[in-house]
Write a structure and sequence with these properties.
The structure is a homodimer.
Chain A lengths: L6 E12 L2 E13 L2 E6 L10 E12 L1 E7 L14 H14 L4 H17 L2 E7 L4 H14 L2 E5 L1 E2 L12 H15 L6 E3 L2 E2 L7 H14 L3 E5 L3 H10 L6 H7 L9 E5 L5 H10 L2 E4 L1 H6 L7 H6 L3 E4 L11 H18 L9 H13 L16 E4 L12 H11 L5 E6 L2 E4 L1
Parallel strand pairs in A: 1-4, 5-6, 6-7, 7-9, 8-10, 11-12, 12-13, 13-14
Antiparallel strand pairs in A: 1-2, 2-3, 4-15, 15-16, 16-17
Chain lengths: ~425, ~425
């Protein structure tokens, strides 16, 4: 592989080293060396005197955003059926649509639309659910690889409590999963497999136990859903009456961090015991505020998770969420934390802007390693943002411009996008 | 005035005659005669055989949206200071910014940016707060008149409990208000004055009583704020301990519908007594879900107001809300009604899509007369919408396309906009 070029971006740099503070370096240089951040400088040091400089003028430069949870095959029906709750919505919209991905022609047509939009979005890294179909999942991985985005993609497992037309046998699920792992494990530069039991109610004990062994055997990460809605939590309790909490179900089968890194979506109804297990096992939480509202699930107490030192990032949860935009994720997280404070717990303050920005960048990025910050040695994922579409009648500081951009901006604002030091948009 | 041309739009027509049902006429003709809807037809009747037809192909055509509550001078700082609650945010952002509109140069620069964006938005009719400055208010009215939008615009009144730099004397406020009314009352075709006491805590009894008399004298509508946040409600209670409820304060001074049409923003904390008074006086409620979340005010029970037969529309409440988009208002109203159902009152179901669409069109439009529907004789306000930016891998019905457009769309979708039969965009 040719060595990556060393270069610098010049502009208004903003990032969050820690949740409590948005750091701002106006009109500074951000140097990229070997795909990583080499430093931030007011003037270029001598050793970088001859590197290429991309002058971004007054634009804002922020770390790329990580989407810790989304379902690629649901992208086609985002913003539809939003009047339904989780379990009804799965039956009426999700399962019928996902079953169509058995057809490779449909899968390619639909996945191309998804991948095109993800490439142009705020996202530089993502954890993605595909469907139960190994071949369509491999196709999705190939399309993602071509974008330059970094993604973990999972063939979904589900062998019970599912519609006849969209269900696997236990043995079939395991055989196809291992085939998919072998075909994808070393095939791509930026895209890799992640084990994906859909959620406990649709996975038999034997399936889950075997997936735990596969996780260890292939050293894979794993993603699933946890404590999303009242109906789902009650269902899990009735299926696994011996388990102390929902997370304990996964833990008993080795799917809760004991065999490798794990990210769980939602955690709206994680109680004290479950949160303690989440902390102990180092499980990441994908906080998906928009989806939790759309499906009337509730509000996850993201602020208190952050205060307790749990690992939290944001997920769009397409198509429980309808928007791929990480900006929207940030503002949704803030808004829902305000409603949580006002309506549920006056002792837990709302998320501040910097805290929510942290969740979207370094918080979720940590699932991918040193990602989501402009600290030295972090992988160089960056967005160059343009807010010229809404001129202000008076001058604003970069911090204020970023807040406004997060609330008002859309894909039009993204002028350049870098992943691991490589420009993939602009 | 020249007679308005009779013409027809052809496309997929959608509107809500009543809240419970979205009516859809795919590939139909919508005829406009004398600025009003003359009818919907599958084929053009003979009497319209020779009128001009604007063929909108597969695009969606919906009634224009009404924004029942927004503050034009706050547009400059929308999406800023969103970490604050109402009363702090008024002191730190709102009053300092509004006081700048004493300067006509600044006012023109800022209002031009606002008016340009309002023209391109989903809004065809709006109730707008200006500032305390009569001249800047007249300037705003002039700029709005040039767009072709229909707007009611109010010079704000506030004579106590306000910062020294942004407050009026009672006599000064009344004199300037009457001057502004006289100068604006018959000056514009589409823009008219609306009395605008800011809210009870910043208006003396003498000011409010005099405004009630002005309302009667000039047959004007009136707008203000009501029961928005816990701190504000407690403040009003302490200032007017004799009043049964917040609405009763306005009512005692003749500002609650006894002297003419009234629209009150928010009503998050309107109890049984206040709602009864709202119904009795025929007061309109401007439901502003985004603002109520941003300022951590709470969630107004819009669904139960609708069920009780109260008059309800939607307001962006710029800059408590950050978005001018009425699409966003619809989805915010649905989302917040879901949280209200889940977290506050399981007996009040969430707003359905058609109910929220009704609020944004016919619900708020009613404050302007026969507005916000494609029923015969309604004023011809229409949006032609393009959803081609997000192709679906399979074909969708117009109703589904509209739901998706409301969740995913932005100003780019608005291809044509008609107000009172006149094309003002496209």
């Amino acid at each position: 592989m040719p060595e990556l070029e060393t270069f610098a971006l010049k502009g208004n740099l903003l990032y969050t080293r820690e949740p409590s503070r948005l750091e701002c370096f106006p009109d500074h240089y951000l140097v990229c060396e070997n795909g990583c951040v080499a430093g931030i400088f007011p003037c270029l040091p001598d050793r970088y005197a001859h590197v290429a400089v991309e002058d971004c003028g007054s634009r804002l430069i922020v770390p790329g955003l990580t989407d810790l949870h989304l379902h690629a095959p649901q992208y086609a029906f985002r913003g539809l059926g939003m009047d339904l709750e989780l379990l009804d919505w799965l039956d009426s919209h999700t399962f019928p649509e996902e079953s169509r991905y058995a057809d490779p022609v449909y899968a390619e047509r639909a996945y191309r639309l998804f991948v095109r939009d993800l490439q142009m979005s705020t996202t530089t890294r993502a954890c993605i659910f595909a469907t139960i179909h190994a071949d369509a999942t491999l196709l999705l991985m190939q399309l993602l690889e071509e974008t330059g985005l970094v993604a973990m993609v999972g063939k979904v497992n589900m062998d019970m409590n599912s519609p006849e037309s969209y269900c696997e046998t236990t043995d079939g699920s395991l055989a196809e999963t291992e085939r998919w792992i072998r075909e994808s494990l070393c095939r791509y530069k930026n895209v890799s497999p992640i084990l994906t039991p859909r959620f406990a109610p649709v996975c038999s004990g034997r399936l889950m136990a075997s997936l735990g062994r596969l996780q260890q055997k292939y050293a894979l990460p794993l993603q699933s859903h946890l404590s999303e809605s009242p109906g789902e939590v009650a269902w899990v309790k009735s299926l696994f009456p011996d388990c102390g909490c929902y997370g304990d179900v996964y833990d008993r089968f080795g799917l809760f961090g004991s065999n490798g890194p794990v990210v769980m979506a939602h955690c709206v109804y994680s109680g004290r015991e479950e949160r303690e297990l989440i902390r102990k096992r180092g499980v990441f939480i994908a906080h998906c505020p928009q989806s939790n509202v759309n499906l009337s699930s509730g509000i996850a107490p993201a602020k208190s998770c952050l205060q307790d030192g749990l690992k939290v990032g944001l997920g769009s949860d397409i198509a429980g969420g309808f928007s791929l935009s990480g900006f929207r994720g940030i503002s949704d997280a803030i808004q829902m934390s305000k409603m949580h404070w006002r309506l549920q717990d006056p002792d837990i303050k709302p998320l501040s802007f910097s805290e929510a920005f942290y969740l979207a960048t370094k918080g979720g990025g940590a699932f991918f390693g040193k990602v989501g910050s402009f600290e030295t040695d972090y992988e160089f994922d960056a967005l160059v943002l343009d807010d010229a579409a809404w001129p202000s009648p008076s001058e604003l500081e970069p911090e204020s411009r970023l807040e406004q951009l997060v609330y008002l901006g859309d894909d039009r604002c993204i002028r350049k996008k870098y992943v691991k030091g490589r420009k993939i948009v602009g």
